[in-house]
Amino acid sequence: MSYLESLEKSHFFSGLGTAEIDRLIKCLRAEYSEYEKDEAVLREGDLYTKVGIVLSGEARSVTTDISGKSVIVTIQKEGGYIGVLLAASLGRRSPVSVYASSHLCVLSFPAEHIFGICAKTCASHITLLRNFLDATAEKALALHDRVDCLLKSTIREKALAYLTRMASEKESDMFNIPLDRSAMAEYLGVDRSALSRELGKMKKDGLIDFYKNSFKLLV
After folding, report:
1. pLDDT tens-digit profile of 34-71?
2. Which domain holds residue 212?
3. Considering 150, 185, 203, which residue would you say is the last residue of a domain?
């Protein structure tokens, strides 16, 4: 299958070879879907009983506050997961909507086939279940990182928390972020103009340097 290479990059299939992944795709009755930019993968309140793996493109999960403003919760790139916490939550309806940020390709697996050990009780399926637990923890930690940004009291603290985390993920003080200014402001829960002004002040104060979505930490 043409998307096996993408699946090999996902932690969901860590420790499994190409042939094993190919067998599991058939065993789990995988479903392939494509979405255009801004098309909904799932909507807030939906009962989503699958685990989706992003093969290509990017997706964003968003929620709406009481004023009707959309707020980005997480961003999923190639190899990322859609619905993994819902699959582990025994029928809870989605608290977020998920939209394609670009042309998006997703391979999804019904949760019942992930949790239901196959007739052969194969080692590959046991490995997949262990990886599912890791994926659940990974998604929970991503939400923790999001909350950590929101809990900061100033725009500068929020921006530094986010940029420091991105530098850590990239293992470099120079890195690109996947968000434009509007999306970054939405992710941090701040006004876009106020964020742009604060980034300019941070650059003047020698904390960061940047050009568009390319940043360098100087502290």
Report:
1. 999 999 999 999 988 888 999 999 999 998 876 777 78
2. 154-217
3. 150
